[in-house]
Amino acid sequence: MSLDPLLIVELVALGLCTGFLAGLLGIGGGMIMVPFISAILGHRGVEPGLAVKMAIATSMATIIFTSISSVRAHHQRGAVRWDIVKRLAPGIVLGAGIASLGLFAVLKGGSLALLFAAFVSFSATQMLLDKKPQASRTLPGSAGQLGAGTAIGFLSGLVGAGGGFVSVPFMTWCNVAIHNAVATSAALGFPIALANAIGYVISGQGVAGLPAGSLGYVFLPALLVIAIASVLMAPLGVKAAHALPVKSLKRVFAGILYVLAAYMLYKGLSA
């Protein structure tokens, strides 16, 4: 597959949008990238099921770079709960390894698309309902956070998202302020993305039908272009996140997720 000018324009636009949303919502941009990258690859002759898998893997790899830019901006504002990051990260790496090295390679692309739609819809609903947590509810202990981290890493590995679709609702449910939850989710995006990307590269070795420029399931041209564009835009998203009221932030989060869930449901059913 040649890196034609139209492809570059599409990838730059996608990178700018996802970088902004990564900073704004702490979602790593993966849930934006997966539908669009799968469409871009599909329009260029990649088999639909493989296109979904490559989109998931490539979007996760870009989160490695996006999360660094996003978390730096959040950290400067003192919003990241590093104590939570330290307790969730070990489980995240464990869950990511199980998903990307094991189940991801076995599942068909259509099944992954349906799974993506289901979990994104659930997360959007939780945010839209804006249920108030019990005042006494707090984060679980170290063992509980290890388990939660494993679940976040595992689900992220299957759907190619940075974990914000699970970690932000989880933290707000445990009475972590929404802006702290978004910032902390951005920090968690790095171990999620790194562990999963390594797994996708390994599990994708020797797969038939991969286009030129692929490293395992990761499409390197898209990774390069999107990463550069998204890193430039992430700080602007962070600035917007700290300027918006809590309810508006949750509505934006939920609305974007519903649209993407609907698209991936269509992709999964058509596959």
Highlighted features:
single chain, 271 residues, mainly alpha, two-stranded antiparallel ribbon, 78% helix, 1% strand
Notes on the structure:
The protein is mainly α and 271 residues long. The chain has one domain. Helix content is 78%, strand content 1%. It has a two-stranded antiparallel ribbon with strand order 1-2. It starts with a helix and ends with a helix. The model has no long low-confidence stretch (mean pLDDT 83).
In short:
The protein is mostly helical and 271 residues long. The chain is built from 10 helices and 2 strands; from the N terminus they run ααααααααββαα.
Would you tell me the overall average pLDDT? 83
State the helix count: 10
The end-to-end span amounts to 22 Å
Taken in chain order, the helices and strands follow as: HHHHHHHHEEHH
Radius of gyration: 17 Å
**Class derived from helix and strand content:** mainly alpha
Shape: globular
Q: How many domains make up the 3D coordinates?
A: 1
- Total count of strands: 2
How much of the sequence is in beta strands?
A: under 5%
**Which spans have pLDDT < 50 for at least 5 consecutive residues?**
none
Work out the helicity level.
over 70%
Give the strand order, joined by hyphens, for the main sheet.
1-2
* Sheet with the most strands, sense and barrel status: 2 strands, antiparallel
As an assembly, this protein is single chain
